[in-house]
Every structure is written in C-alpha cells, then in structure tokens.
Write a structure and sequence with these properties.
Blueprint (H helix, E strand, L loop, with lengths): L5 H4 L4 H6 L3 E8 L4 H13 L2 E7 L8 H7 L2 H4 L2 E4 L2 H10 L3 E5 L6 E2 L10 E5 L8 H6 L2 E4 L11 H17 L5
Parallel strand pairs: 1-2, 1-6, 2-3, 4-6, 4-7, 5-7
Helix pairs in contact: 3-4, 3-8
Length: about 180
C-alpha cells in the first residue's frame, strides 16, 4: 500500500470546481465562535461540493488567517454569504424553496438516517458551540435532525457534526437518491 500523490488523486482545479455540479445543500452557521470550526466546515463543504455556506451573526467571515489555517483555500472555492442574523438567512432560503433543517437535539428531532427530503434543496443549520441552534431559529426551521450517539457525551464538536451530516447527504446525492 502506498499513499497517493496530489497528482494521482486527480482533484479538480479551481475552475473545474466552479463549473461542477453542486450538491443541493446550503450550510448555515448560526453564531459559530471558533474560527477553526468555520474553516473546517468550509473544507468539508469543498470536499462534498456543497452549494454554499451562509455565515450568520457572530460567525467570522473570510478572509481571516485563523479560518484559512483549517480551510486550506476552501474559502476561495466554496460560495459563501454573510447574514446579520440566522433568521434573515432562513427567510432568504425559504423564499427560494429550501427545506430548512436544524441539526440539533430537540423533542421532535429525527435521527439522521431517517431524515426525509421534502424539497429539491435543503439547508442545514449548525448552531453555536455552547448554546446550539438558537430557539428563535428553531421556530423557523421545518424540522430538526440529530446524529444518534451511544456514549456518555451528548454532543459532538460542530465541525465534526457538520462533517458527518454533510457526508451523509453527499452519499445520498451521489447515489442519485433523495437527500
């Protein structure tokens, strides 16, 4: 077994990436504090060809040295937009026909693997590292999904959570099935 070189991986160049079909998913970051988490989400969004990342509230925007450390250039390939509030972003998405799902543990959340797509496009809202998705934001969402967990902790780091959920959606999209 031998690790592949960058040339052998056959990755797209930035122009090919811009032209490539994107997964019909927008990631919404609701008041994310950590610049490293923001950068990590950008890198994951690039890896799985997410349509866009919406940065809301206190979530920092590129260009920023600390975001770049983990994004490794993904802020240049992934479309992004800033909204003063997450509520504003959700209203924008709903006006465009998106199903908006909070990734949060709620009294009505659905396990990730039981999620049903009700629209051609989906927005996934990831919340603050301490507070989660805000209550006002939850009220605007069409539902909530959660990653089933079996350990002693009841949460995952937001960038890890985003990686799992985005990958799950990517596998469904790649198979040509409903998200």
């Amino acid at each position: 077994m031998k690790q592949l070189s960058l040339d052998q991986l056959g990755r797209m160049d930035p122009e090919e990436y811009r032209q490539a079909e994107k997964m019909p998913v927008v990631v919404v970051l609701d008041n994310i504090r950590s610049l490293h988490n923001i950068g990590s989400v950008f890198r994951t969004a690039d890896a799985f060809r997410v349509t866009a990342v919406f940065l809301c509230g206190i979530t920092a925007c590129p260009p920023h040295r600390e975001i770049h450390k983990t994004a490794l250039g993904a802020t240049e390939s992934v479309r992004w937009k800033y909204f003063k509030t997450t509520e504003e972003a959700i209203h924008h998405l709903k006006a465009k026909g998106f199903q908006v799902l909070a990734v949060e543990q709620t009294d009505k959340s659905t396990p990730l693997h039981h999620t049903k797509q009700t629209s051609e496009h989906t927005a996934l809202v990831f919340g603050n590292e301490v507070e989660g998705v805000g209550d006002a934001v939850l009220q605007l969402c069409d539902g909530a999904i959660e990653i089933p967990q079996a350990g002693t902790k009841h949460s995952l780091n937001v960038s890890v959570c985003a990686g799992i959920v985005i990958w799950y959606y990517f596998t469904k999209w790649e198979q040509g099935g409903n998200l």
